[in-house]
Write a structure and sequence with these properties.
Blueprint (H helix, E strand, L loop, with lengths): L11 H19 L13 H15 L10 H22 L1
Length: 91
């Protein structure tokens, strides 16, 4: 289910990286890029944390080692469906 989110509702963190994240996910979906860490035997509930970290790292987050539940939730709300499809296609 898609949720309509206006730009004003996004955090500054995601607004600054939105286009980079969308571009990277499009490249993953098209096969132009490959996941750093393949899904392998990970369950989606675990892999989404890894996937979000890779996405953040790829979009210039120099503090990627710091997990943020708020950022994770926001990224999953925006891109979770696309990320899950990529996960399933690479499983």
């Amino acid at each position: 289910m898609k949720v309509i989110i206006t730009e004003e509702q996004l955090s500054v963190y995601v607004r600054r990286r939105y286009h980079c994240m969308k571009d990277y996910l499009d490249k993953l979906a098209s096969g132009e890029e490959r996941l750093f860490i393949p899904p392998g035997d990970f369950e989606w509930s675990s892999y989404q944390v890894v996937f979000t970290a890779v996405l953040r790292l790829n979009c210039g987050d120099k503090y990627n080692g710091l997990y943020s539940q708020d950022i994770h939730n926001e990224v999953m709300e925006l891109f979770g469906d696309d990320m899950f499809k990529i996960y399933k296609d690479n499983k």
